[in-house]
Structures are given as C-alpha cells and as structure tokens.
C-alpha cells in the first residue's frame, strides 16, 4: 500500500510542477508554440508582410501628416 501512495504523490507532484512551469513561462511558451505552428503550416509564407496582430484601423498621428503638394 505504501508504494501506491508514493506513486500517487509522485504523479500529483509532477502534475503540479507541470502546471507551475506552464503558468510561469506562459509568454515564452506561447511564442514558441506560435513559431512551431507557423513552421508546420504549409500555407504560411514568410514573405507576406501582413501582420495579423496589427490593428485594422491604426490611429493616424496628426503631427506626422505631410500636406500633399501639387505640381
């Protein structure tokens, strides 16, 4: 009975350790998983400049607007 108890405690400890690592390293793990998903996607083209995280309607800074000059 002691071996079964020790095995259950060991499995529970491994589960808690796995969850802790997943929570602590979440940003790094997400970036790595996204990179793996992109590399395994046959439709992904790294030459495309579309940024899926870019806002659809970016705000325009009025100080950077240059008036167009007609010739």
UniProtKB/TrEMBL annotation:
Compositionally biased residues, Low complexity: 58-71
Annotated region described as Disordered, given as residue ranges: 38-71
Superkingdom, taxonomy of origin: Eukaryota
Name of the protein described by the UniProt record: Outer envelope membrane protein 7
Source organism (scientific name): Beta vulgaris subsp. vulgaris
